[in-house]
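Aim 2 progress update. The chain analyzed this quarter is reproduced below.
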Amino acid sequence: MKKLFALLLALLTLFALAACGGGEESPAGDESLTRGGLPEGEQTETGSGEESPTLLDPADLDWDLSICQPEEAFHEIEHYNIDPSGYVGLRLRVTGEVSRYESHDRTFYYIGVRDEDGCIENLELRFPGDGSEPAGFPEDGSIVTVWGRMGAYETQRDGKSVLCAVLTDVQFTTQTDFRD
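Predicted structure tokens:
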């Protein structure tokens, strides 16, 4: 059964990539941000004072989920959240619904993508610089397109070490269709 699941997961990932073209303060507890996945010499460090690159051009992206059907984007974000280690360092663009979560005097930001049944898969967002909300960032429930670099951080949950997915150096636009 495990082999069948692994094969199915691999096929879904390949299908989605073909169809779609494809440190920082941690939110809580004992965590450290993980970076990697890029060839040597192409690794970037956040917080270095450099302005984040604009990633609107599809040629600059490793993974453009904004052009996928919502169901495909949902499943790709779900796979990324299950095991982000293979995606760290890739540049991603995705369209979805903005949400915020208040915890321990800090606001966490998410973009959520819904599947055909209305289920939502969220991806944590972190903005460049001090991580504060940028001017003009829309209200909860707004549909936006965000882009940034995929990362991961380790945290403790129920006494176990867990790797969590995050999109770093996030930029955004309320424009949702780049195909015009």
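Helices lie at 2-20, 70-82. The longest helix spans residues 2-20. These observations will guide the mutagenesis experiments scheduled for the next reporting period.
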